[in-house]
Amino acid sequence: MKIFIEEQKFNQPFVLIGLSVAFIVVSITTFQNWEAINQESLSSKIGSLSGIIIVLFVALLFIFLKLKTRIDEMGIHYQFYPFQFNYKTIPWNLISKCYVRKYDAISEYGGWGMKFSFFKKRGKCYTTKGDIGLQLELKNGKKILIGTQLKEELQRTLDNYQYKII
C-alpha cells in the first residue's frame, strides 16, 4: 500500500516581497497623515487604518493558505485550507482518467489558487505554484486539477493505483 502526501504553501519570494512592500507603503502613508487623521472622528480614524488592517488580513491569509493532497487505496483526497476545513475525497471508482500534466495557470485558470476556469471544459483548479498538476477527469464529466511539486513521487503512486480506475 503506497501513500502519497504533499503539503504546499504560498511561500514564493515575490508573494512575500509584494505583501511586505504593500504593508510598508500603506503604513508610511497612514502615519505621515496621522496628525490630520487624529483630529477626525472615530469612524474616519478606523477608515484610515483599514488599509493597514486589509494588508495584514491578506498577509495572514497567505500565511495560512495550504494545499494538502493525499492519495491512498481509498482515492484522492485534497484540501485547500482555510477555504475547505475538511478533505474532499474522490474515490477511485468515480475517476475515469487520472494523469500528471503540465498546465499554464494564467491562461487556463486565470492564476494560482482555488480557481474555476472561464471555460467550463477545464473545470476546477487547486494550485499554489508551479506548472505541474494532477489532472482528474471524473465519470460525471467534471475535471479537477491539483497542483504538485512532487511530480515523480506522484507518478509512482498513480502507477501503483491505476488498476483501481475502472
Strand and helix map with partners:
Blueprint: E1 4-9, H1 13-32, H2 34-38, H3 42-64, E2 66-72, E3 75-81, E4 88-91, E5 95-102, H4 105-109, E6 113-116, E7 124-127, E8 132-138, E9 143-147, H5 151-161
Parallel strand pairs: 7-9
Antiparallel strand pairs: 1-2, 2-3, 3-4, 5-8, 6-7, 8-9
The quaternary structure here is single chain
Number of helices: 5
- Tell me the Rg in angstroms: 21 Å
Portion of residues within helices: 25-40%
The counted number of beta strands is 9
* Distance between the first and last residues' Cα: 19 Å
Name the shape in a single word.
elongated
**Strand line-up in the sheet with most strands:** 5-8-9-7-6
> Unreliable segments (pLDDT under 50, ≥5 consecutive)?
none
Largest sheet: 5 strands, mixed
Structural class: alpha+beta
Summarize the structure.
The chain is α+β, with helices and mostly antiparallel strands and 166 residues long. It is 39% helix and 31% strand.
Question: Mind explaining what this structure looks like?
Answer:
The protein is α+β, with helices and mostly antiparallel strands and 166 residues long. It contains 5 helices and 9 strands. The longest helix has 23 residues, at 42-64. The chain starts with a strand and ends in a 5-residue tail after the last helix. 16% of the residues are buried. The mean pLDDT is 85.
Question: Which properties best describe this structure?
Answer:
single chain, 166 residues, alpha+beta, five-stranded mixed sheet, four-stranded antiparallel sheet, 5 helices, 9 strands, elongated
